[in-house]
Give the backbone structure.
Amino acid sequence: MILKSMEVGPIMANCYILGCEETMEAAVIDPGGDPDRILQMLKGLGLAVKLIINTHGHFDHVGANKRLKDATGAPICIHREDAPMLAHLSQAAASFGLSAENSPTPDQMPGDGDTLTFGRITLKVIHLPGHSPGGIALQTGDAVFVGDTLFSGSIGRTDLPGGDFNQLINSVRSKLFTLPDETQVYCGHGPATTIGREKRYNPFFR
């Protein structure tokens, strides 16, 4: 699997490009901004986008949805609980003194246990409410992309509309911490970590 990450948008969210080395088909996870940079990276890698996947609906993770869809025609995927946010990104960003372009409506709304496939790669959807009602992780092999649910040494904020601290803690304990310790955790902001490291050292779970 081809895996590239880049920090995008005004809050420096992690955008991940996953590519199948056999078919050169790709998924873009959390295109939060800087669509031209994302498209340039895809072109340089020789990848064709088949899926645009949002781990949740906050503007800093979905701000480039429209430009990417316009350029590639790829379907936008988000959990149904967060789908309504896509029509209000401009308003949400303005509340932080920032700007964002509203997203087209989603084409697919995968739920817990569903799979998303591109090329020879399959992503399992794990519903992780807490940071937002429709937050999801995407797991393939020994890698999981968790959005803003879990960070290296921390967790996502729960003071935004729809957030719930107890729900987030339960989501991590019951769904992420059941994955093997060696699973690589790719977060929505900041560095990657592992399930084992967070189980042992994350202060919210000690």
